[in-house]
Amino acid sequence: MVPPPPTNKPHVCLSTILIMSSMALMDAYLVEQNHGPRKIGVCIMVMVGDVCFLIVLRYVAVWVGAEVRSAKRGYAMILWFLYIFVLEIKVYFIYQNYKADRKSLDTIARKALTLLLSVSVPVLYIILVAIDHMEYVRAFKKKEEIRNRLFWVVVDLLDILDIQANLWEPQKKGLPIWAEGLMFFYCYILLLILPCVSLSEISMQGINIVPHKMMLYPILSLVTINIITLFIRGSNLVFYKDARVSGILIGKNVLAIILKTCSFAQYRKQLQNAPPAFGVELQKNSVILLPSYPDGEPPLLTEDTPRC
Which segments cross the bilayer (predicted)? Predict the structure, then answer.
């Protein structure tokens, strides 16, 4: 049997500490939002849930630490999906409690919740990618290109969290119930899927990673984040007079649309000019060297023929 790869213990500890600390802070929000006997019941429920989550995390985090030096990111995708799935459920109940208690205008606590999410979620993504452990990426230029792509993913995550934070931060005029629910679950789905797409691109390319061929995530983010969220912010600004709409992130979306469109055009131009080179490269990679024989046919094996 092949022995399992060694586990990167610092990586496992760092990801586990970040995940459990953010979960504990979410639990603190949930407990403080309830009073009386209900507070004790909520406390017991979140503790039981955290224990079950910690049991699952104990194995998944170790598997993630075992693949951190390889080109695979399969367990990293599982851990990300599990973390966001549980985290957003807690965020949903926190948001509903704030919505039910309209008299509570604790602006600092709501802003702190936004800050907590905007720090913990992107940092966990960076830890799961672990670009500094990609020893198989020899060229410094390639590693810098990958790092630039990860920067765009982090900015997209902050963009999604900014839209979602509009639901629980203090507001003068609330959105319709259907619009709030649609906005929350749209951001929920994006947080679940898009980072996993980015991790899968890195995993699918393996050791011979080529950054300019990783185009699936830029296409999805262009449509689902840069274009659709631009319409969401524009609608909130025009129809609901929402003063909390971030003009900086609107500018970011417009700039990202321009830059990504130029990148797609350049990549398409490279593909049109590259087929012969790619064909030669594929032939070189797929040719199997066979021994040559003077008569064109391999000799017959006899009992006196030496064997290796």
Answer: 12-30, 42-62, 74-93, 113-131, 175-194, 214-232
Confidence of residue 86 (pLDDT cuts 50, 70, 90): very high
Question: Residues with Cβ < 8 Å from 46, sequence gap 6 or more?
Answer: 27, 30, 31, 90
Which tokens go with 154?
Answer: 């982090």
Which of the 8 DSSP states describes residue 1? -
In tens, the pLDDT along 202-234 reads 777 666 666 666 788 888 999 999 999 888 888
> What is the C-alpha end-to-end distance of the chain, expressed in Å?
26
Per DSSP, the residues of 42-82 read HHHHHHHHHHHHHHHHHHHHHHHHHSTTSS--HHHHHHHHH
Q: What is the pTM of this model?
A: 0.81
Alpha-helical (H) ranges within the chain are: 9-32, 37-66, 74-100, 107-129, 140-165, 177-205, 216-221, 228-239, 247-273, 275-286
What span, in angstroms and rounded, lies between the C-alpha atoms of 28 and 211? 41
Cβ atoms of 232 and 163 within 8 Å: the answer is: yes
Q: d(Cα 196, Cα 97) in Å, to the nearest integer?
A: 30
- pLDDT digit string, tens, across residues 121-180: 999 999 998 877 676 666 666 777 778 888 989 999 999 999 998 888 866 666 788 888
Distance CA 55, CA 288 (A): 48
Cα–Cα distance, 87 to 160 (Å, whole number): 15
Q: Among candidates 127, 116, 92, which has minimal Cα distance to 8?
A: 127
